[in-house]
Amino acid sequence: MARTVFIxxxxxxxxxxxxxxxAEEGYRLVITGRRHERLKVLKRExxxxxAAEVLVLSFDIRDRFQxxxxxxxxxxxxxxxxxxxxxxxxxxxxxRIDEGDPMDWNAMIDTNIKGLLYVTRVISxxxxxxxxxxxxxxxxxxxxxxxxxxxxxxxxxHAVHALSQAMRMDFLEFGIKVTEIRPGMAETEFSLVRFxxxxxxxxxxxxxxxPLTGDDIAEAVLWAVEQPAHVNISExxxxxxxxxxxxxxxxxxxxxxxxx
Length: 260
Description:
Elements: E1 4-7, H1 13-24, E2 28-33, H2 36-50, E3 54-58, H3 64-72, H4 76-79, E4 83-86, H5 102-130, E5 133-138, H6 151-170, E6 176-183, H7 190-194, H8 199-204, H9 214-225, E7 235-238, H10 254-259
Parallel strand pairs: 1-2, 1-4, 2-3, 4-5, 5-6, 6-7
Helix pairs in contact: 1-2, 1-9, 3-5, 5-6
């Protein structure tokens, strides 16, 4: 029987790419997010392209009760989750602390930390009952390297880093694996969301470089999950070749970039 993977934030970016990667390998999928129409389109594509079994759950991960109700509503065929990919997350705004918008702070804290916890609490309990499971948390290199004007986002990803390590200890005796994937610069909708829809500002983030893609990160998630039963990949840190860390990025003109 195919294993079942539950992916949060699957309507775009890393989550969507991860859904495609798992569907291609024959996994059963539960794809979740707030944008129901996008999820329905993705479901149809995965069914047509890979003959995948796909369940759509639309809910706001920031709402504990919506999370619990949605997960408990899953039909029996999808109820036993083998793999949880905690992907849903965002950055909102790029300002110093004294200039930051508390509404942006709430969105990041509620999604990146509390949403991850709400979903993990319910699904990990079911994994413990079955004695098997794998939790993959999508973190960030900002989870150990905070940067100016990104303090709150970095703080939430520091939390994801700490929670991933704590989960590994909490679930060790129950045979549940925990992996954290910590990407650097990746061109998805991340920057567009951060700059509240300002495409020019979002595009400028990746000017003169070749960033990671959602597909790159999805491949890392799949690789970690498909290791032998006795192997746990604790964390993967991945960056574009042109990025050494949060602070150090080399940029070249477009023509040179395209030749690489």
